[in-house]
Amino acid sequence: MDPFQIQKPPTQFDVAIVGSGAGGGMAAYTLAKAGAKVVLLEAGGYYDPADPKYITQLKWPWESPRRGAGTTRAFGDFDAAWGGWDIEGEPYTTAKGTEFHWFRSRMLGGRTNHWGRISLRFGPDDFRRRSMTGVGQDWPIGYDDLKPFYDRVDRLIGVFGSVENFPNEPDGIFLPAPKPRLHELMIRKGARSIGIPVIPSRLSMLTKPINDERGSCFYCAQCGRGCQAYADFSSSSVLVKPAMKTGNVTLINGAMVREVITDPATGLCTGVSYVDTQTLQEVTIKAKSVVLAASAGETARLLLNSKSSRFPTGLANSSGVVGKYINDSTGASRSAFVPALMDRKRYNEDGVGGMHVFTPWWLDNKKLDFPRGYHIEYWGGMGMPAYGFGWGVEALNGMIAARDGSKKPGGGYGAGLKDDYRRFYGAYVGMAGRGEPVPLESNYCEIDPNVVDKYGIPVLRFNYKWSDYEVKQAKHMQDTFEEIIHSMGGIALGEKPGAENSYGLEAPGKIIHEVGTSRMGNDPKTSALNKFQQAHDVKNLFVVDAAAFPSQGDKNVTWTILASSMRTSEYLIDQVKKKNI
Amino acid sequence: MKRRDSLKALSLTGFGLAVGPTEAAVPAPPDVKPLKIPGGRQKFEAERDAKLMAEKFFTPHELQTVTVLSDIIIPADERSGSASQAGVPAFIEFMMKDQPRNQTPMRGGIRWLDNTCTKRYGKPFVQCTKAQQIDMVEQIAYPALAKPDMTQGASFFTLMRNLTASGFFTSQIGIKDLGYVGNTPNQWNGVPDDVLKQYGLAYEERELNPGK
Ligand SMILES: Cc1cc2nc3c(=O)[nH]c(=O)nc-3n(C[C@H](O)[C@H](O)[C@H](O)COP(=O)(O)OP(=O)(O)OC[C@H]3O[C@@H](n4cnc5c(N)ncnc54)[C@H](O)[C@@H]3O)c2cc1C
Ligand code: SF4
After folding, report:
1. Which of A179, A241, A410 comes nearest B143 by C-beta?
2. pTM to 2 decimals?
3. In A, which residues are within 8 Å of B206 by CB distance?
4. Boundaries of domain holding B32
């Protein structure tokens, strides 16, 4: 087979969308419903959580020879992620002295198949942090611009929660929230007693049916495996499939887009070129507009790799900001043992696939020594055992008296140890902070001059270091975690992380919320996209993933990707109608 | 559950590729038995699993040692069977191949145990009497109390304890023993009343009467 044979499919599409995750799925849905002829290019394979070929939901640990260990899938053997921190043949690099971990999913729906489904809106303050604190960057839009789209996303996709009127934590249009589990009630009681709020979480699972296409949640706690009833949100089940039903979407799986093609005369995009991952053939697709949604890192890579004589520094990059200001949420965590939960009565408390309560950011940074906030996520309870069960008991069972009141040293063996495992089951809790960093120009990704992937495409090199702001925030998280643990009578496990290990601050990338690599703004000199996420330099090029976001928020990003992708897609339709593009 | 929709998905083969001239020059790949990919597995995972299953890590002596140790760690009792009855040795064998970083601590740990038993009782561990085996285990089962010449053994025993517990409580026998009753379609209506009472907790009014 001649690998250099260029295939030319006959059609010109209205829009070519690169990537089928949160941003790409929403764009495909919105554009196809409006009648546009869309080609959806997805590097990964086809996926449907209701097809026995792919189902992992409701499997037992013994159905995996490694009992669910994360040897080939970072989040365990049953997790619905194809890909992970490392993908065979698709490397990335990091500059010396810096660190970044890049989680990629190569499949229809991208990382939305196994994400945590924490579905938070950004609040009004999250769009104007620079004005408020003097560091970071304001957005060119505010909460009011996105609110109507958040509302429509809530209705279209479904999210449960509760009306709280909490500062800077806008309420949505919510389905009923599931009641807290036992450990969540204990956390709530403890935390509230020391002035830390705990409210029902906001997750995109259907606690009530919203249409005929999707079932409702049957509380198996396994959304990360993908839901056969389509009761949780994933872009593949909830957006791409209905989009395809319109007949307006041509989905091409295994299409690794390499470059956005532009006309040297007009400077407009004319389509994209991709490598077929099975045959390694190069294929060119023609389209009147191009929408990038390959995820923040990959979108920057595509722009930087789409160099031409007219765009020598990469596409949409006359400002030079593409790749810069990459920022991921901060993260730190602690777990605990709660003696009061020992010897629990057994019942099914699986609940939804995630926490039923959380803590939104509740303090005023003006009174603190770091400029941005964080929220707290919780876990615990009588979950399905998996690889790692019982690990580390030797650090704990020496502290706990046996049923007859006797104490023995930590570790052990035999009938007494076996009984300890039973007694401790369901008595652990954990908590993790997810915080907002300050986006910095010195944190960036660029094209590595020396390395290509197996398709011959130059790869990204990351340069990322946390600043003092994030380290101080992590310190605050650790102090808070201990206070919460003590407030509920728990024993914090392990050493408290300290200055020597940056207070347990996770390495950049580990929280998988990277944003900012082709940020929007009003000034074409300091931003790549305008406030509609349209390239300043190329008017028929749009970005609908988190690359466009100037900052992170102390919330997870995906609900904002969905809302802004819907907004940008409608703007595109409007511009076509007005014959501006 | 909804019926799955069949979707039109294009792949490059849909574009009707002609076979290029270089293809004929490449020798055909060797015949491989087609592997059945179990549901929920990617192809490379199924191939990897099949390969690992076909390999052997433990020698018969090592496997015997692991079996005896795992049953000392989790013996049968009135509620459930022992580690070996729950298939723990086979699980540990698989984990050695699946995560090879375990191999040296495990193989070396077994050697350490045999060396130490030979010194103390004149025989490798599995050939010692039950009383000698327990006497040995007592020296390494409590890491914080291990004497300086026993610390490596304590590390090994900790690894064995952890693998045994993980293997046992993720088996059918172990999950039944533990009383985990989920992983099945359910309605979550909150913590049972008697449990709430036991812990002195209550739901809020709005949780009891949502929508009010
Ligand atoms: C374990 C985990 C938990 C998470 N939990 C949460 C959470 O609770 N809340 C939250 O808000 N967010 C969460 N996230 C983050 C969330 O998944 C992402 O923010 C979201 O999926 C990003 O959407 P996206 O469309 O930008 O990219 P993705 O979902 O990553 O989709 C990008 C798609 O583009 C494809 N692609 C990439 N490059 C190319 C190319 N060159 N050509 C063609 N296709 C390409 C990829 O294969 C992929 O399918 C979590 C992520 C993970 C991994
Ligand atoms: S918890 Fe509910 S939504 Fe999530 S996978 Fe299970 S049934 Fe589906």
Report:
1. A410
2. 0.94
3. 162
4. 5-53
